[in-house]
Design a protein that fits this description.
Layout (H helix, E strand, L loop, with lengths): L9 H8 L3 H21 L1 E3 L10 E8 L4 E7 L6 H10 L7 E5 L4 E5 L12 H15 L11 H18 L6 H16 L7 E3 L8 E7 L5 E5 L5 E3 L2 H9 L2 H5 L3 H16 L3 H21 L3 H13 L3
Antiparallel strand pairs: 1-2, 2-3, 3-5, 4-5, 6-9, 7-8
Helix pairs in contact: 1-2, 5-6, 5-10, 6-10, 7-10, 9-10, 10-11
């Protein structure tokens, strides 16, 4: 930074301030934290942070040997411990390579990747193909059984759905909630450690970035960032593309198009389609409720509308 003051994106500032005293203290000392990490890791951090996120300060960095990297410092209440553990397990295979980790400051130094899949303007089918190819590589990483399990995830989503539906004054039919809770019970019971893998947990296009090195003259490899890190069945990762692109589903027969997407995901990934469908329904309902909770009204309504069509 060479004496510069870090620029904190407005969304990050708002989220940190909402944490109260701890968040305000973090903002006050962020410049010092960055300078300490620069010294400890022998890097130079660009004071102009990346925009778009809200959970952490993220900025470009350059190592002493000229390598391009990214520094990430979580705001209070958003620990990076599980994310760092996931990235360390992957060691660059299917995920951004973890270069350094400071657990006290909740900071990481990562390899710098390229453009996100979401920003490449590719058709949805192509994005799904890339996501599944990247997931198949990521699933090869040896998992840590001590990570949160698929059974725990199913229970936590069921608890969230029940509470948030009531809190939001029941914004979708009760039968949708009942179906989501039924599927959560089934998927929780289906967890088996012997078939579980390291699961990203939020494998969407915005978390899928081009690697700097190309695998061939025409196609770039992709890697994941921002993993939740779970020990779960493969179908959970495929629930994320099932919950995305609601508008495109609503423009046609949402039930038929949803089943077609599910079958396509199952074919590409070699995963049971019923498990994908059930996790996808759970994720669509829980994320729709979350979107309404944070004020993303249109996104939430579209997600829940699709879930209603999927009841047919």
């Amino acid at each position: 930074m060479s004496g510069s003051t870090v620029e904190v994106p407005e969304l990050v500032r708002q989220k940190a301030t909402a944490q109260g005293v701890e968040g305000i203290r973090w903002l006050t000392h962020l410049n010092d934290i960055v300078e300490q990490l620069e010294r400890n890791w022998d890097v130079v951090v660009d004071p102009n942070a990346y925009q778009g996120g809200s959970e952490a300060y993220v900025a470009a960095a350059t190592t002493s040997d000229g390598a391009e990297a990214v520094i990430k410092i979580a705001i209070p209440g958003n620990a990076l411990t599980t994310e760092a553990r996931t990235l360390a397990l992957a060691n660059g295979h299917g995920y951004a390579r973890l270069l350094e980790h400071d657990d006290v400051r909740q900071a990481m130094l990562l390899e710098r990747l390229g453009t996100s899949l979401a920003d490449l303007g590719l058709p949805i089918k192509t994005q799904i193909e890339i996501l599944c190819g990247t997931l198949r590589r990521a699933w090869e990483v040896r998992a840590d059984p001590n990570l949160p399990s698929g059974a725990e995830k199913a229970r936590s989503l069921a608890t969230f759905i029940t509470a948030k539906w009531e809190e939001l004054n029941k914004p979708c039919p009760e039968r949708v909630i009942e179906r989501a809770l039924c599927f959560a019970d089934v998927r929780g019971g289906a967890f088996h450690p012997e078939t579980a893998v390291l699961v990203h947990g939020d494998a969407q296009s915005v978390n899928t970035l081009q690697a700097r090195a190309k695998t061939s003259s025409t196609s770039a490899q992709f890697k994941f960032v921002d993993p939740d890190g779970l020990f779960a069945e493969r179908a959970y990762d495929l629930a994320i593309p099932m919950r995305e692109w609601s508008k495109e589903l609503l423009e046609g027969d949402a039930a038929r198009l949803g089943r077609e997407r599910c079958a396509f995901l199952g074919l590409l990934a070699g995963v049971d389609t019923q498990a994908i469908w059930e996790w996808g329904f759970i994720e669509r309902v829980s994320t729709g409720l979350l979107a309404l909770h944070v004020g993303a009204e249109q996104v939430g309504r579209e997600m829940l509308d699709v879930a209603s069509h999927w009841m047919d």
